[in-house]
User: Which sequence fits this backbone?
């Protein structure tokens, strides 16, 4: 059996939730402290430099593994992403509903570059020594996606209600999707070949996420009822 630290800190196999819980501790103090909250770009730079130092001096660069499920180094990117989200929240009135076709192009370009780099690294066409470029591209892609969607917020209000409800529901179960996907991938992927495994996995992940969403929602409501 594994210790509590193994499940919640390191080196847990499926550490997404544990990582977020841990990172929310410094994130909470950052958001609640005026000085730190007003220095988000500086904090993102500090996190990036700390990650670069760990990468340069301690990270095993002999093979490509920076984006594997069990990779603890991803926590630097998680923290950067949380701070980036907070920064866009601060800049809401600056960027909301200010759209340019360049925002679409930037998403498309960074998306292609990310998956191209991922493919080339996986095939050893690019030296694993520079695999940190993978996380840099993810961060740039995330920035581009944030900038695009905050710029078209008003346009999204005009889409048909059925699509809005679908988008809202998918948004509501994104955490559950992330929780169940890696476990199901390990269980189902070896059973079928592509594209059958992809179809079965997508269906299983979606169904499991929906079930988990309603079960967890029921439990949370019961707990809150008891507390109140």
Assistant:
């Amino acid at each position: 059996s594994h210790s509590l630290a193994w499940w919640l800190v390191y080196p847990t196999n499926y550490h997404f939730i544990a990582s977020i819980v841990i990172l929310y501790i410094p994130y909470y103090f950052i958001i609640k402290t005026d000085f730190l909250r007003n220095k988000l770009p500086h904090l993102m730079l500090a996190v990036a430099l700390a990650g670069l130092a760990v990468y340069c001096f301690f990270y095993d660069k002999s093979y490509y593994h920076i984006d594997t499920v069990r990779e603890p180094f991803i926590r630097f990117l998680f923290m950067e992403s949380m701070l980036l989200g907070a920064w866009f929240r601060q800049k809401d009135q600056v960027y909301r509903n200010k759209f340019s076709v360049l925002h679409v192009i930037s998403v498309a370009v960074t998306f292609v570059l990310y998956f191209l780099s991922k493919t080339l690294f996986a095939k050893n066409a690019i030296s694993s020594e520079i695999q940190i470029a993978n996380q840099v591209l993810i961060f740039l892609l995330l920035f581009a996606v944030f900038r695009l969607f905050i710029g078209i917020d008003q346009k999204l209000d005009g889409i048909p209600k059925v699509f809005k409800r679908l988008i809202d529901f998918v948004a509501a179960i994104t955490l559950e999707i992330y929780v169940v996907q890696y476990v199901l991938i390990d269980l189902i992927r070896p059973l079928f070949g592509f594209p059958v495994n992809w179809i079965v996995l997508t269906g299983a992940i979606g169904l499991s996420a929906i079930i988990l969403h309603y079960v967890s929602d029921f439990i949370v409501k019961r707990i809150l009822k008891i507390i109140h």
Q: What stands out?
A: The mean pLDDT is 89. Residues 17 and 179 are 7 Å apart (CA to CA). The chain has twelve helices and no strands.
